[in-house]
Amino acid sequence: MAINSPPPQRGMCFIIGLITAVSGAFISGISILHLLQYALTEKSWAAPIIVMVEYWDSFLDTVFTTLYIQQFIEFIITFIANQFDLDEIPTLYPHWRHIFVPLLLISNSLTLNTFLEGKRKFAIWALSISLLIGLISSVLAGVIPLVADSVWNNTLIAALPISAFFMTVYVVWLPINKSDKFSFKQLLKETTFTTIIIFIIVLSNIKYNFLDNNVQLPLILIIIFIIITGVRRIIAGYKDFKKEGGSFFGNQYTKRGLTILYGFIFVLGTIVCDAGYGL
Q1: How far apart are the C-alpha atoms of 116 and 121, rounded to whole Å?
Q2: 95-107 vs 8-39: helix crossing angle, rounded to 10
Q3: Which neighbouring-strand residues pair with 40?
């Protein structure tokens, strides 16, 4: 009896998808770990993890410097400051980069999956918008210093990138009139609600000192938002699966949610190893 083998095209898509998932989980995971390490300034990590994150930081530094991204951004900031006759040129703090990479990764969960589905033009459009809005919002958050007892600083550093994510989703769907995907009304609702929640958490933390002053709360809130976004996508995938049928794991929303959360598997494994290393 002849064994039916999968068509070459399907097999190739599976291999590409597998490689993409594994590499994506690693890149996403180490980016989130990078952000987490920056947020927990007093946390003592195991030596192998410190080395890994330092290599990743050096890699990002090389990329941003070699491609003149850092220099270009600083030039634009200086230019704008001069145009408005500001007394001081705003400082671009390191956390802008820590925010930008994870934010880009969750925004591009749509880009990755639509590209693998063969919708390449839409994927390129989504990638371009993600890069542009993600970069602008991260830089805006990056010129605000991390001050533990400042309500507005902490609120804005967290709210700007998160609001930018909602804006990215809205703008990405505009060209194909997918108002049912994410309407302007929903954009305002999500942005307003999230900003208010962030403000309440920041204010409560400053008043009641839930966290140590060395913990960068806005960065922790961004990490929590990434997790919530992935979970919400998976829940949407389950609802769509129950309504339309088909495969739950093959559902477009489920795949986007899993793409976002893949990195946390890596982070969780790293934290477990870190705990074991300290025993």
Answers
A1: 12
A2: 150
A3: 215
Q: pLDDT for 104-124, tens place per residue?
A: 777 777 777 777 777 788 888
Q: What is the pLDDT of residues 216-240, one digit of tens each?
A: 899 999 999 989 998 999 999 999 8
Compute the C-alpha angle 216/218/219, nearest 5°. 70
Q: Between 151-173 and 120-142, two packed helices, what is the crossing angle to 10 degrees?
A: 170
Per the CB < 8 A criterion, the answer to whether 265 and 25 are in contact is yes
In angstroms, rounded to a whole number, what is the distance separating the alpha carbons of residues 173 and 252? 15
Could you give the CA distance from residue 96 to residue 105 in angstroms, rounded to a whole number?
A: 15
List, in sequence order, every residue forming a beta bridge with 215; answer none if it has no partner.
40
**Domain boundaries defined on the chain:** 14-277
How many C-beta atoms lie closer than 10 Å to residue 221's C-beta?
24
The Cα–Cα gap between 99 and 105 comes to 10
At residue 144, φ and ψ (nearest 5 deg) are: -100, 120
Alpha carbon distance 174, 145 (integer Å)? 34
**What is this structure's pTM?**
0.84
**Structure tokens given for 134:** 């993600």
Tell me how far apart the alpha carbons of residues 225 and 195 are, in angstroms, rounded to a whole number: 12
Retrieve residue 39's tokens: 């947020």
